[in-house]
Structure formats: C-alpha cells, structure tokens
C-alpha cells in the first residue's frame, strides 16, 4: 500500500517486502527509481525544492527511511511496518544480488571509497558481481561517458552515493539513458561499508537513536539536525491542527 505524507508518496512496506518489490522491478525491466525518504529530504521537498517533490512522486519505490518518517506515519494514522534505511536496504539487496546473479554498480563518494566498498561487499557476499565503480568527484562534462560505461556494463542494480538530493537528481537526469536498471540513492553508505566511517552501535540502532550516534561522530551535522524539529512541527501542524497543505 502506498500512502501520502505531506504530499509525498511512501510505500507501507517492511524491509523484506521492499526487497521483494525491487526484485519485481528488476524482473519487469526498464529504468526504475528507488528513494529512501528521510525527514530531511521530505522537509526540503515540501518547503524548499518542489522539483525534488516531483522526483519523489516519480519513484517506483519510496521507503520510510528514518524514525522521523515512521513517527509521522503514526501521527497521520497510516503507520509504516518499520524503517527501511538506505544502507540496510542496500545490504539486503546486495545479498539478494549475490544469490540471484544480479550485477551491481557503485557510483559516488570520494575517490577510492566505492572501490573499497566493492571489495568489502564481495568478501561479505560470495558470488556478488560488482561490474564497476566510479567516484563521485567527476565533472559535468564527464557524465555522458560515465553513463555510457554504466550502460555497457549492464548492471541490474545501480547504487548512487552522491548525497541527497544530488543523487536523486543525477538519477533522474540519466536513468533513461542507462535503460534497464534499478537505481537507488544511498547517501553515505559507501563510506560506512568501506570502513571509513563507523556506523552507530547496534544498541543505538535498536533504541532508534542512530541519528544521535551520527551527530556525536560528526558534530558538523548539527545544522542539518535542526530540520528534525521543523519537520515534526510541520507534521503536527498539518495533521493534528487541521491545516492541510
């Protein structure tokens, strides 16, 4: 089931169901988009960047990435089964790719990070086919060649780690040229998988305060965290005070 939250569609799917949905998209063929939607992206789309909201509405799968989105679902009376984060979805899809024989391509992050992430993934998931990597520090005039290289290598899964909303906009610009691929924006996932950035401890993840762990390890994120109370107020104002957008 797909619901609307602040005029953005979000699929009410568990992690297992999201993986199955991606498998269906791969089987169906064609260019497909997956967005893992967190409060920061949604707030920006609704309040600042309406082009981003259009991209969210075009996506074939939109997951509830972040406890803030899950909370908002409870507030609006359309609860989500669980949060489906970008990195967790990526790892589950890579596991499935190794079993199914799907080819994978990693695009984004600093030079060397995608390559290291690919090495870690192939060690962790025997049989995984990573058919290519490309760092995210390329110039605009290099994009055509990069897109053609991805197309020639024929991945079924393209993970793009350029940060939101840059990754969603890059996917939208080029996915039609790439063709039969499911593209997923995964933010800083390559940095974590490669070992360059430590993820919050499991106990923090279980307590649903992973955001706090990221803030402690990256204090410079505090300005971005200011979006969270703004998002919460927007949800309450819209759905509890009767002021529909």
Automatic annotation (TrEMBL):
Lineage: superkingdom: Bacteria
- Pathway the protein acts in: Cell wall biogenesis; teichoic acid biosynthesis
Q: What CDD domains is this protein classified in?
A: Glyco_transf_WecG_TagA
Cite the InterPro entries for this sequence: TagA_TarA, WecG_TagA_CpsF
Any GO BP: teichoic acid biosynthetic process
What molecular function does GO assign, one term?
N-acetylglucosaminyldiphosphoundecaprenol N-acetyl-beta-D-mannosaminyltransferase activity
| Listed Pfam families | Glyco_tran_WecG
Q: What is its EC number?
A: 2.4.1.187
Q: Which class of enzymes does this protein belong to?
A: transferase
For this UniProt record, the keywords arranged alphabetically read as follows: Cell wall biogenesis/degradation, Glycosyltransferase, Teichoic acid biosynthesis, Transferase
Q: Keyword check for Transferase, yes or no.
A: yes
Enumerate the catalysed reactions: UDP-N-acetyl-alpha-D-mannosamine + N-acetyl-alpha-D-glucosaminyl-di-trans,octa-cis-undecaprenyl diphosphate = N-acetyl-beta-D-mannosaminyl-(1->4)-N-acetyl-alpha-D-glucosaminyl di-trans,octa-cis-undecaprenyl diphosphate + UDP + H(+)
The family assignment reads:
Belongs to the glycosyltransferase 26 family. TagA/TarA subfamily.
The UniProt function text for this chain reads: Catalyzes the conversion of GlcNAc-PP-undecaprenol into ManNAc-GlcNAc-PP-undecaprenol, the first committed lipid intermediate in the de novo synthesis of teichoic acid.
Protein name, per record: N-acetylglucosaminyldiphosphoundecaprenol N-acetyl-beta-D-mannosaminyltransferase
Q: Which organism is it from?
A: Desulfoscipio gibsoniae DSM 7213
């Amino acid at each position: 089931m797909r619901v609307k939250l602040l005029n953005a569609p979000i699929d009410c799917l568990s992690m297992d169901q999201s993986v199955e949905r991606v498998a269906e998209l791969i089987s169906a063929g064609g260019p497909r988009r997956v967005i893992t939607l967190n409060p920061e992206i949604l707030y920006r789309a609704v309040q600042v960047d309406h082009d981003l909201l259009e991209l969210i509405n075009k996506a074939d799968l939109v997951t509830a990435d972040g406890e803030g989105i899950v909370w908002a679902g409870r507030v609006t009376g359309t609860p989500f089964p669980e949060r489906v984060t970008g990195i967790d979805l990526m790892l589950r899809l890579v596991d499935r790719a190794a079993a199914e024989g799907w080819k994978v391509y990693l695009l984004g992050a600093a030079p060397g990070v995608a390559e290291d992430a690919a090495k870690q993934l192939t060690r962790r998931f025997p049989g995984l086919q990573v058919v290519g990597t490309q760092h995210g520090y390329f110039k605009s005039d290099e994009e055509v060649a990069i897109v053609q290289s991805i197309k020639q290598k024929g991945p079924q899964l393209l993970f793009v780690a350029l940060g939101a909303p840059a990754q969603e906009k890059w996917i939208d610009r080029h996915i039609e040229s790439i063709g039969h691929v499911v593209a997923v924006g995964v933010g800083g996932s390559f940095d974590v998988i490669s070992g360059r950035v430590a993820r919050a401890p499991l106990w923090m993840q279980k307590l649903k305060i992973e955001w706090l762990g990221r803030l402690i390890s990256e204090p410079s994120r505090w300005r971005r965290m200011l979006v969270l109370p703004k998002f919460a107020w927007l949800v309450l104002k819209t759905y509890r005070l009767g002021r529909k957008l």
